[in-house]
Design a protein that fits this description.
The complex is a heterodimer of chains A (271) and B (87). Chain A has 271 residues and is of the alpha/beta class. Helix content of chain A is 44%, strand content 16%. Chain A has a single domain, classed as Rossmann fold (3-Layer(aba) Sandwich). Chain A has an eight-stranded mixed sheet with strand order 3-4-2-5-1-6-7-8, sandwiched between helices. The termini of chain A are far apart. The C terminus of chain A is likely disordered. The mean pLDDT of chain B is 75. Helix content of chain B is 59%, strand content 14%. Chain B is elongated and about 60 Å long. Chain B starts with a helix and ends with a helix. Chain B is of the alpha+beta class. Chain B has three helices and two strands; from the N terminus they run ααββα. Chain B has a domain of 52 residues: Cell division topological specificity factor MinE (Cell Cycle, Chain A, 2-Layer Sandwich). Classes of the chains: A alpha/beta (271), B alpha+beta (87). Chain B: One of its GO terms (biological process) is cell division.
Chain lengths: 271, 87
């Protein structure tokens, strides 16, 4: 039985889609069978980030409406045998994403995959609540910035109240993925640091992804960063996050922090 | 001047953290779907009604949240002859 993960944030532009692609690919790279599902009906982008935009024939709404079978809508990644994409619809009416339909699709995916990773749309409307509805665990993508932290807090509240697990009195595992982190700015006191965000949101840390040019490069060429630039610090941070998600106990390393011992000293003097 | 700008820089993340802590304490209380004030209002009214007859329209419960303390203000209008009527 597969595990359903929702990648969510409330705020837009914090890196949900790139993180979905990178973690999905990282899990597939270690041999697990993974499907990444785009819930952003009307504004799909996971296909583009995954480099599969020209291979979309059927989508999630087609499957829900019974116009296509699930197997017809699933797109197998060209680079990784065990990675699949279920794209969102681009043009259709959002109301066609029904709770019953989503439940059915998730149930079928659970029997066929090890991981079902749902890329949530921004906001707290229907698409976002349906993306989290059946989640066993959530990755809350947060930037070290006030509006993102506030929205994450709101989303954590929804995860604790509006999911099937929460309604049954169970807990949805929640993991913080701190994205676009700049260790130098955090060290100089100009950016919320890892401890600040963890203290405010009080959920366990899945990983810290450094702000980096690799991400833009990866989306430019349509490949998850763990595939196209696997030795980069960014990719390594995602690999480790994926391993922690799978239950491995690896200590979280904060990118660039070793340097910052010196950096702190000189950085402060220079300020 | 250097020292001043150093302190100013240090303050921005601290300011962010403090502002968030205060804001989220409020929002968690109000967004959680549990309306504390209206529950308190009903229960306070029920207790008072055991002893004196009051009109529910004349009971005002107001909560002001702040740091470090929040205040609960209860304003009940009791008519002159209420006791007699309740008895």
């Amino acid at each position: 039985m597969g595990k359903v993960i929702v990648v969510t944030s409330g705020k837009g532009g914090v890196g949900k889609t790139t993180s979905t692609a990178a973690i999905g690919a990282a899990l597939a790279q270690k041999g697990d069978k993974v499907v990444v599902v785009d819930f952003d009906v009307g504004l799909r982008n996971l296909d583009l980030v995954m480099g599969a935009e020209r291979r979309v024939v059927y989508d999630l709404i087609n499957v829900i409406q019974g116009e296509a079978k699930l197997a017809q809508a699933l797109i197998r990644d060209k680079r990784l045998q065990s990675l699949y994409l279920l794209p969102a619809s681009q043009t259709r009416d959002k109301d066609k994403l029904t709770p019953e339909g989503v439940e059915k699709v998730i149930a079928s995916l659970k029997s066929a995959f090890d991981w079902i990773i749902c890329d949530s749309p921004a906001g707290i409307e229907r698409g976002a609540t349906l993306a989290m509805r059946h989640a066993d665990a959530a990755i809350v993508v947060t930037n070290p910035e006030v509006s993102s932290v506030r929205d994450s807090d709101r989303i954590i509240g929804l995860l604790d109240s509006k999911t099937v697990k929460a309604e049954a009195g169970e807990r949805v595992e929640k993991h913080l993925l701190l994205n676009r982190y700049d260790p130098a700015r955090a060290a100089s006191g100009d950016m919320l640091n890892v401890d600040d965000v963890m203290e405010i949101l009080s959920i366990p840390l899945l990983g810290v992804i450094p702000e980096s040019a690799n991400i833009l490069r990866a989306s430019n060429i349509g490949s998850p960063v763990t595939l196209c630039d696997s030795s980069s610090q960014t990719a390594q941070a995602y690999f480790n996050a994926a391993r922690r998600l799978a239950g491995e106990a690896i200590p979280v390393t904060i990118p660039g922090e070793k340097r910052s011992f010196f950096g702190k000293f000189f950085g402060r003097k220079a300020a | 001047m250097k020292i001043l700008s150093f302190f100013r820089k240090r303050a921005s993340a601290t300011a962010a953290r403090e502002r968030l802590q205060i804001l989220l304490a409020h929002e968690r209380a109000s967004v959680s779907g549990f309306d504390l004030v209206s529950v308190l209002r009903e229960e306070i009214l029920a207790v008072i009604a055991k002893h004196v007859q009051v009109d529910s329209r004349h009971v005002r419960v107001k909560m002001e949240r702040g740091m470090p303390v929040s205040t609960l203000e209860v304003d009940v209008e009791i008519p002159f002859d209420a006791r007699a009527r309740a008895a």
